[in-house]
Automatic annotation (TrEMBL):
Residues 156-216 form the GFO/IDH/MocA-like oxidoreductase domain. It comes from Polaribacter atrinae. InterPro entries: Gfo/Idh/MocA-like_OxRdtase_N, Gfo/Idh/MocA_Oxidoreductases, GFO_IDH_MocA-like_dom, NAD(P)-bd_dom_sf. SUPFAM superfamilies: Glyceraldehyde-3-phosphate dehydrogenase-like, C-terminal domain, NAD(P)-binding Rossmann-fold domains. This is Oxidoreductase. It comes from the Bacteria.
Length: 319
């Protein structure tokens, strides 16, 4: 078991603490939170060991789980890496691309691994179909949320849209060619709703909308590729694959058949892949433990977290 400590015991930090304590791949040593009152309350309520400083916690563990506000990600991660500790760091990886690049360099220099908490990679609705997403040429994502003051210290692009940016970069095997975007600050000091169009060198286009001032929640992505349409509902954890294949010699009388202007006929097949229920946060944390044990690249590496941040920053620069 890997000795792990958590930096930050807010809403998400407490979830990480609970799951790490449950995991048989980690030995939860304790946590640090800058609020002495909150640290005392969390320690008393759940029985976790509270440390007096970031440094003392880092010294006591092998893995540091950073669940602090984005503004402090770099300093926390730098301190951990320089002590030779592996780091799991919540998304976005850091506040700036310069900081993210610096962490990549440091991790390589000190021979430690890092994983970024892009949890939607572990959403069962996505994992059920990700291997079927092949060379998508148009992608549409909607990530809408009701207003919650938590997270408003950063633009909605870094708060919500970055999830979809990471998903898109994981399935489109091409470099970003251009980005166009617009955003509006409605309640916060930074944009609360944004739309972005990402064009890739291979011709793929992704259209993303993110809002944290919606009347309803939605987390849905659609992938269009040759002879297939794949829908992923990250919220309800459901997937659908619609495929078009050549019409068989003797089609079923209830078969859905389309004919294009050239007279080519295609039969439509609907698939609803089995989606296994899971705890995505636990899965991402345990996958990092596996990567450390086997010395292999994490599912969401520091490089991938940096690439997602780069694209997010390109979007923000359009505002």
């Amino acid at each position: 078991m890997l000795k792990v400590g958590v930096l930050g015991a807010g809403h998400l930090g407490k979830i990480h603490l609970r799951l790490l304590q449950q995991s048989d791949k980690y030995n939860l040593v304790g946590f640090y939170d800058p609020s002495k009152e909150n640290a005392k309350n969390v320690a008393e309520e759940f029985g976790y060991t509270a440390f007096d400083s970031v440094e003392s916690l880092i010294d006591a563990v092998e893995v540091v789980d950073i669940v602090t506000p984005t503004l402090s990600h770099f300093d926390c991660a730098k301190s951990a890496i320089e002590k030779g500790r592996h780091i799991f760091i919540e998304k976005p990886i850091t506040k700036t691309v310069v900081e993210a690049e610096a962490l990549k360099t440091l991790a390589s220099q000190f021979h430690v691994l890092g994983q970024v908490g892009h949890v939607e990679r572990f959403n069962p609705a996505f994992t059920a179909v990700k291997d079927q997403i092949e060379n998508p040429m148009f992608i549409e994502c909607h990530r809408l949320a009701e207003f919650n003051p938590r997270g408003t210290d950063v633009p909605v692009v870094l708060d919500l849209m970055i999830h979809d940016i990471d998903i898109i970069l994981s399935v489109v095997k091409s470099h970003v060619k251009s980005v166009h975007a617009s955003g509006v600050a409605v309640i916060s000091e930074t944009p609360d709703i944004a739309n972005a169009r990402i064009e890739f060198e291979n011709g793929c286009v992704a259209n993303l909308t993110a809002s944290r001032i919606s009347m309803k929640n939605m987390r849905k992505s659609r992938f269009f590729q040759k002879d297939a349409y794949i829908s992923v509902n990250f919220l309800s954890k459901e997937s659908e694959v619609v495929r078009m294949k050549d019409v068989p010699a003797n089609p079923d009388e209830f078969a859905m058949i389309l004919q294009n202007a050239e007279g080519v006929k295609k039969q439509i097949y609907f698939e609803n892949p089995e989606v296994e229920n899971n705890n995505a946060i636990l899965d991402e944390l345990e996958s990092f433990a596996d990567a450390i044990k086997s010395n292999t690249s994490p599912v969401v590496s520091l490089r991938q977290g940096t690439e997602a941040l780069k694209v997010a920053q390109m979007i923000i620069d359009c505002f």
